[in-house]
UniProtKB/TrEMBL annotation:
Organism of derivation: Bradyrhizobium yuanmingense
Top-level taxonomic group: Bacteria
Protein name: histidine kinase
Enzyme Commission numbers on file: 2.7.13.3
GO BP annotations, alphabetical order: osmosensory signaling via phosphorelay pathway
Catalytic activity: ATP + protein L-histidine = ADP + protein N-phospho-L-histidine
Length: 402
């Protein structure tokens, strides 16, 4: 049925049956109804029929034969106490066709301004309807029905949106899994092939293979960043597996790896981190690697890169400092935005995910990365407050009270 949804929505409003009952008892009208009225249809959505008028939910009248058709056009209520004494309707075809003497119909206008239908009543006897009390009651009930219909519509939209989001979430997770599998497998094959070739080539060939290993490592880093971006934006977010551990070995491991790959660059490390920190070592290594890689890419090649790390009971801080041209002022607000790069040389362009992922890792740890850039140096500072142990706070408070 074309209007089954509208009928179901009215049926779902528990107050409608009470409204029809109150209208009937208050006015004495023998037939009351909520009708869905369109340009070419008049459909009963709910009714109370003490006249055996014969209309139940789903039944239809020719819309042209009803006064509701005129109400849809004017959006004004029609109230008739006695058809035979009403100059406007005594000769109207509708009362004669349906045999009523009293009639009242009020439009149901939805909050968005659209016309739904009418709350109407008829009776073969004259009734006193055109009073402020009766008209006010009908208008109030019509507004109540409209509000319920709007709430039902919003609820349905919300449920549909949630269902679509659940479906999209499943598709996103599948996409992320396939993305990781399809990108990493070929790269693993290339790495395996390069390791085999290293045993069968001369020194010049090994030099070329070393360059290829560097390209493979960069590609692996790009894949990791893309995967992390997909998870943070499309999946379940940045996941951590934190435990308490020393900060210095994490930092020095990454520094050592960069020194092997970039043997022509000087990296100065100043790490004073006696306090253990609660971190996901893999994620923190990834963040630090991105920051150090950024410094090597954009820093002056003949100037050293400085690493400063400190930890204490209040938290820890890591700074990566490089010399070279400052970051353009217009690029500073977008440093940690995905897919945004500053004005750099053509061969330095990339996806622009490294700093975004680093910031996400910092935030997942409850920290923040900031940047300053002057003619003298560019400094990226990752600051992390020590996690608050709520149970310790409560215990300390109890002891203090005692």
């Amino acid at each position: 049925m074309e209007f089954e949804r509208d009928i179901d929505r009215i049926r779902g409003i528990a107050a409608v049956s009470t409204i029809l009952d109150v209208v009937s008892r208050t006015t004495g009208m023998g037939f009351t109804a909520v009708a869905r009225v369109t340009e070419d249809r008049w459909i009963t959505c709910a009714s109370r029929d003490d006249l055996a008028f014969g209309l139940k939910p789903g039944d239809e009248l020719k819309v042209e034969s009803t006064i509701c058709h005129e109400i849809r056009q004017s959006r004004e209520a029609v109230i008739i106490d006695n058809v035979s004494e009403d100059s406007g309707y005594c000769n109207h075809h509708t009362p004669a066709q349906y045999g009523f003497q009293s009639y009242i119909s009020v439009p149901i206008i939805l909050p968005d301004g659209s016309f739904f239908g009418t709350l109407c009543a008829i009776d073969p006897k004259p009734r006193k309807l055109n009073t402020p009390e009766v008209v006010g009651m009908f208008k109030l009930f019509a507004e109540l029905i409209a509000a319920h219909l709007d709430a039902a519509e919003r609820m349905e939209l919300t449920e549909n949106k949630l269902a679509a989001e659940r479906k999209n979430a499943e598709l996103r997770e599948q996409f992320i899994a396939v993305l990781g599998h399809d990108l990493r497998n070929p790269l693993a094959s290339i790495q395996g092939g390069l390791r085999l070739l290293e045993k069968k080539v001369d020194q010049e060939g090994k030099n070329w293979i070393a360059l290829l290993h560097g390209s493979v490592n960069r590609m692996a880093g790009l894949i990791d960043n893309v995967m992390d971006f997909a998870r943070s934006r499309l999946g379940s977010g940045m996941q951590l597996r934190s435990q308490r551990q020393d900060l210095q070995p994490i930092i020095m491991q990454i520094v050592s790896e960069f020194e092997r790959v970039h043997s022509d660059r000087r990296i100065l490390s100043d790490v004073d981190a006696p306090a253990a920190v609660n971190v996901d070592a893999g994620r923190l290594s990834q963040m630090f690697s991105n920051l150090l890689g950024n410094a090597i890419t954009y820093g002056a090649p003949d100037e050293p890169i400085s690493i400063i790390a400190r930890s204490s009971g209040a938290g820890f801080k890591i700074q990566v400092i490089n010399k070279g041209p400052p970051i353009p002022a217009q690029a500073m607000p977008h440093l940690f935005t995905a897919f945004h790069r500053g004005d750099v040389l053509p061969n330095q362009k990339g996806l622009g995910l490294g700093l975004y992922i680093s910031q996400e890792i910092a935030r997942a740890h409850g920290g923040q990365i900031s940047a300053t850039s002057t003619d003298n140096s560019t400094i990226f500072t990752a600051t992390f407050a020590a996690p608050t142990n709520r149970s310790d706070e409560i215990a300390a408070t109890l002891v203090a009270k005692e």
